[in-house]
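Morning F.,

Quick status update on the modeling queue. The single chain you submitted on Monday has been processed. Sequence for confirmation:
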Amino acid sequence: MGVAAHLGIDLAEYDARIRTFIPHYEEMLSVAASALRPDTGIVVDLGIGTGALSLRCRERVPKAKIVGIDSDPEMLKAAAQRIPGAELICGSFVRWEITRCEAVVASFALHHVRSERAKAALYVRIAEALRRRGQLVIVDCYPAKSKAIARKQFTAWREHLRSRYDEQQVDSYLFAWSKEDVYVPLNVEVELMRRAGFAVEVLWRKDAFAVLLGSVRD
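C-alpha cells below.
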C-alpha cells in the first residue's frame, strides 16, 4: 500500500493533508533540518515521501547531496520535482544498503518498522553508514511510557484532528493508522539508538511527538 492510500487520501492532496493530520508538522521539520551541520556532504532521507524534510535540509545545507529511499514510486515522482538533482531509490530502507554519508534523516517513516528488533538492526546499519561525527535526525510519534500520560497525548492528537474532521472521520483515520504504524515509547526508542552507538538528544517534544538527534560517538 502506498503512503497516500495508507492515510486515506489522494497523492495530490498529500502535502496539504499531512499538515492537518500531524500537529506542529512544520515546526518539527524546521527543528530537524536545523540540526544538520553546515559541512554536511550527503544526506540520506529514509522514507523520503514527497521530499518535505529533504527540502528543508537542502535549504539548511544547499550544497549537500540528497539521497532519498522510498518504496512508493508515486511519492518518488513528487520528490523528484521538489528536490532537483536528488538521487532517488525505489525500495525499502529496512533492506536497502544505506549510502555512506554524513547524515541520515527520517520524518514519520520509522514507525513503519514493525518490531523493536528490526528497528535495532536498522539503527546499527545507520551507524555503520555514517561517517565520523555523523548525525541521525528523526521526526516521529513517541508516546510516553506511562499509559495514563500516553492516553492524554493521544487525546491531544485527537483534538487536533477534530479541528478539521468530524468524529467519524477521526475514528476512521486513527483506526486505519493503528493497523499499520508502530509507535514506540520515547524512552524505548532512545535506548535502541544508544545501543547502536548513538549519543541521543531530544531536540523538541510536545505531547506524543518529538525530534531526536543521534550523534555517532567518537
